[in-house]
Amino acid sequence: MADLRSAFLNVYSQLKSELLQDPSFEFTDESRQWVDRMLEYNVPGGKLNRGLSVIDSYRLLKEGKELTQDEIFLASALGWCIEWLQAYFLVLDDIMDNSHTRRGQPCWFRVPKVGLIAVNDGVLLRNHIGRILKNHFRGKPYYVDLLDLFNEVEFQTASGQMIDLITTLEGEKDLSKYSLSKHRRIVQYKTAYYSFYLPVACALVMAGENLDNHIDVKNILVDMGIYFQVQDDYLDCFGNPETIGKIGTDIEDFKCSWLVVKALEICNEEQKKVLFENYGKPDPANVAKVKALYNELNLKGVFEEYESTSYEKLVTSIDAHPSKAVQAVLKSFLAKIYKRQK
């Protein structure tokens, strides 16, 4: 895995140097240094799961055939396009959420002298995807399919972010707006498409597949993405901060979390009152009351039951898929997230 990661990072270096020499723009030393620093700060720093899974998925679709250097490079380039997309969303998300840290360092817009220039940096990050695709895929028969795919997923993600933002409007903290179906829609659009469907869709397109023939794969991956986010919501409250690498703040932030939606569904009037009075307040005493209520409602148990039913459903859907190679791709995704602790 380590050598796969370092090979993947080498492709990043090549793509970055191509972007810094893009013939469509006359760079000055100052502007080239700015973009270089901006990319280094925002693109390669995460876990790289989304990007690496394009290569994983493509390899599984090729059913054990040795990949050529060219195939590895192209799958890596598509993986990096997803990492660029992620960087673009996160840079802008952090401004919208007025966040302070990301991946253990200050958010890009919080860096001295960056500020709202970060908005334009986000726009640049998005444009880099088109440049990378043009540089390496323009001659491929599936070039238009890739452009379509990235446009489609970006639109879905931005629309999901919109539902999230208008649901959690400051000054209009109203828990009665929250429901399981609202939670599902936000997660499906904001997270599942670009984190789960997009990496596999890139691999399928590269393998010469028509995505219209793989609607079932999309549905399974979206369900997996929802399951992943429910785990995330659970770990935000019940996970070990040492293990997950962050201190959860969903309760303080009035997030439309699976836990609060479940709590609203199963609690009595008295308990509902406790939720309405304490959810979304920054004071640790309020947070503690919400957590105590979660324990009283045995949300740990409710989650464990959700986890096993979701897992069984996913396995059944995957086993029903006619292609063994596609099954292998989906199973490898599921294995990475089932019962994860971080």
Automatic annotation (TrEMBL):
Which cellular component, as a GO term, is one annotated location? cytoplasm
Kindly provide the name given to this protein in its UniProt entry.
Farnesyl diphosphate synthase 1
Indicate the family of this protein: Belongs to the FPP/GGPP synthase family.
Domain of life, per the record? Eukaryota
Required co-factor?
Mg(2+)
Q: Does the keyword Lipid biosynthesis apply?
A: yes
Organism annotation: Hibiscus trionum
Pathway field = Isoprenoid biosynthesis; farnesyl diphosphate biosynthesis; farnesyl diphosphate from geranyl diphosphate and isopentenyl diphosphate: step 1/1; Isoprenoid biosynthesis; geranyl diphosphate biosynthesis; geranyl diphosphate from dimethylallyl diphosphate and isopentenyl diphosphate: step 1/1
Q: Report if keyword tRNA-binding is assigned.
A: no
Q: Which UniProt keywords apply?
A: Cholesterol biosynthesis, Cholesterol metabolism, Isoprene biosynthesis, Lipid biosynthesis, Lipid metabolism, Magnesium, Metal-binding, Steroid biosynthesis, Steroid metabolism, Sterol biosynthesis, Sterol metabolism, Transferase
**Function text:** Catalyzes the sequential condensation of isopentenyl pyrophosphate with the allylic pyrophosphates, dimethylallyl pyrophosphate, and then with the resultant geranylpyrophosphate to the ultimate product farnesyl pyrophosphate.
GO annotation (BP), single = farnesyl diphosphate biosynthetic process
**What InterPro entries does UniProt report for this protein, alphabetically?**
FPS1-like, Isoprenoid_synthase_dom_sf, Polyprenyl_synt, Polyprenyl_synt_CS
Question: MF terms per GO, please?
Answer: (2E,6E)-farnesyl diphosphate synthase activity; dimethylallyltranstransferase activity; metal ion binding
- Pfam families xref list: polyprenyl_synt
